[in-house]
Specification:
The protein contains one helix and nine strands; from the N terminus they run ββββββββαβ. By secondary structure, it is mainly β. It has a domain at 34-113. A hairpin with a 5-residue loop joins strand 7 (73-78) and strand 8 (84-87).
């Protein structure tokens, strides 16, 4: 498959985004057509930065990212379901642009405070 973006945790392909190390047993593949919204969030100690994997808030799920503590921003993907994937790509600008273009979403809004994760 043709990869348009790749880092240790995220792969953006032509037809889906693969969130690596999402489950204990592997990746989650999300078709772009399943993405309802993308929200950029600022990370703080209680709002994502110190969460390596999983969640303390069952409305969100963070994939495994051992470098999340050094990152400032993340993305929350709304898939129209209760649990929203929380990702922290190495290049959030590029990933957000790809997701918005392929999912047919409008321009990005302001960065908001991240959820308690």
């Amino acid at each position: 498959m043709d990869d348009n973006y790749r880092d240790k945790g995220i792969i953006c392909r032509n037809d889906n985004v693969e969130i690596r190390h999402y489950y204990l047993w592997g990746s989650k593949r999300v078709p772009y057509s399943s993405i309802v919204a993308v929200q950029r969030v600022a990370l703080t100690a209680l709002k994502g930065r110190l969460r390596i994997w999983g969640t303390a808030n069952m409305d969100y799920w963070a994939n495994l990212d051992t470098k999340r503590s050094s990152k400032n921003e993340g993305l929350v993907l709304d898939l129209g379901k209760r649990v929203k994937p929380f990702i922290t790509p190495d290049d959030p600008d590029r990933v957000e642009t790809i997701l918005r273009e392929r999912a047919g979403l409008g321009p990005s809004g302001p960065t908001i405070a991240g959820p308690f994760i």
